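Q: Sequence in, structure out?
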Amino acid sequence: MRTSNHLIGILNFLTFLLSIVILGGGIWLSSRANNTDCLKFLQWPLIVIGASIMVVSLAGFAGACYRNTFLMKFYLFVMFFIIAALIGFIIFAYAVTDKGSGRSVVNKGYLEYYLQDYSGWLKDRVVDEKYWAKISSCIRDSKVCSKMGRTSNGVPETSDMFSMRKLSPIESGCCKPPTDCGFPYVNETLWDLGGGLIGTDPDCSKWNNNQQLLCYQCDSCKAGVLGNIKKSWRKVSVINIVVVILLAIFYVISCAASRNNKKIDNNEPYSEATMTKEQPSRFQL
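A: Exactly. Output:
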């Protein structure tokens, strides 16, 4: 039984370490929500799940160390639902970020993002006027567009250099007009509105060289936010899939070890102490 308890204790310690990974993913999403993605509710389920795993694993560890049956049963019971919640969260994350991606542009290093390529619950939430007002304000406050400026040997980058850059979805969708507009390049966030043809894209008329406006009301900006969220969530989901597989393995082993403990406890007639009682030595008085 002591070996089984040691095994359960080790597995709970490893589970505790995995909870740190999940919490780290939630905190990373939270930092991006405040600075880049600007969607401030998606990270909380992950943080809550990570914190729950941490607390439950500590309870299981204590139960294994002190042979506390209640804590062990509590660990096994609650962990089952936590693993189920994490699996549901992963499925949800893939479902809401399933559709939509950037489109490649001829002779450009960056991608263009179109709102019609996206659909579903997440898109509906992002395009909601009240919610978009908060998101666009967050993007503006993050100064992601003002940080795009680059120089080469003290000289601002040229149009050709800018065309070859790998822009993030938000930089591509919110900080510059769509390529179809045909506006001549002045710098990263300033374009000559009178020196080119205005394309058929409705976002062309929404572009403004005012650094407080830019393309923050463009559909391409909303698509860029969705593209950024998809990239962030897919990265975290890959880690979560690995974590949930390891948690499931640890849980099955813990269940088996716990059953082994119960089996040994219920098999007392075959233990040394009990056999001595059943067949006392002839030398005893």
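Confidence is low (pLDDT under 50) at residues 268-285.
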